[in-house]
Amino acid sequence: QLFFSFFKTLVGKEVIIELKNDLSICGTLHSVDQYLNMKLLDISVTDQDRFPHMLSVKNCFIRGSVVRYVHLPSEHVDTQLLQDATRKEIASNKK
Amino acid sequence: MADEKETPIVLGTTVEEPLDLIRLSLDERVYVKMRNDREIRGRLHAFDQHLNMVLAQAEETVTRVEMDEESFEQVYRQTKRTIPMVFVRGDCVILVSPPMRGS
């Protein structure tokens, strides 16, 4: 729930999703769900266009389980808020 | 057990479960060992019970074993890169620890 809410605050921002198969996709976060599945708009394959599979693809849906990292814009991340929310999340998962 | 209303959320400093140990490292630098011979060091800002995490000023190290064609030795190569702010999915995480600086 914590990260679901967190990603909702990043809708509309540009992120890079690095998948477990080493593909990196840059795009604007359109939506996210409880499984952290994500939809990206106007994507471009970063790193190398070593992966030409997606040349004609503009938008994509990414299953949460295939994500390794999401590179985030640090200016849009409130670290204090994240830490406080984490403490609450851990506490509420314990009871 | 008596039915008691306890204070809603106790953000105590009692360490009970492993996740509490990680909670102690919030806003501190941590070392994360991951699958596929990867490691990340960074400042821990958030995590959950799946060990999904948000790290700032993160440095990822990927270790690869390359085989030298001529000498037939196995050489360890490490690639590092820095990421200012990153979300790490918990299913890749093996362990989280305070940073183990060599010297």
Automatic annotation (TrEMBL), chain A:
CC terms in the record's Gene Ontology section = catalytic step 2 spliceosome; Lsm1-7-Pat1 complex; P-body; precatalytic spliceosome; U4/U6 x U5 tri-snRNP complex; U6 snRNP
Q: Record's superkingdom? A: Eukaryota
Extent of the signal sequence: none
What residues does the Sm domain cover?
Answer: 2-76
The entry's localization annotation reads: Nucleus
Q: Supply the InterPro entries for this chain.
A: LSM_dom_sf, Sm, Sm_dom_euk/arc, U6_snRNA_Lsm2
Q: Does the keyword Protease apply?
A: no
Among the GO molecular function terms of this UniProt record, one is: RNA binding
A UniProt-annotated Pfam family = LSM
- GO BP of this protein: mRNA splicing, via spliceosome
Keywords, A to Z?
A: mRNA processing, mRNA splicing, Nucleus, Ribonucleoprotein, RNA-binding, Spliceosome
Q: Which family does it belong to?
A: Belongs to the snRNP Sm proteins family.
Question: What name has this protein been given in UniProt?
Answer: U6 snRNA-associated Sm-like protein LSm2
UniProtKB/TrEMBL annotation, chain B:
Q: Where in the cell is it found?
A: Nucleus
- Main location per UniProt? nucleus
GO terms for cellular component: cytoplasm; Lsm2-8 complex; spliceosomal complex; U4/U6 x U5 tri-snRNP complex; U6 snRNP
Keyword annotations for this protein? mRNA processing, mRNA splicing, Nucleus, Ribonucleoprotein, RNA-binding, Spliceosome
Q: Any keyword Cell membrane?
A: no
Protein name per Swiss-Prot or TrEMBL: U6 snRNA-associated Sm-like protein LSm3
Under the heading Pfam families, the entry gives: LSM
UniProt cross-references to SUPFAM superfamilies, sorted A to Z:
Sm-like ribonucleoproteins (SSF50182)
Q: Which GO terms describe its biological process?
A: mRNA splicing, via spliceosome
Q: Which residues form the Sm domain?
A: 17-102
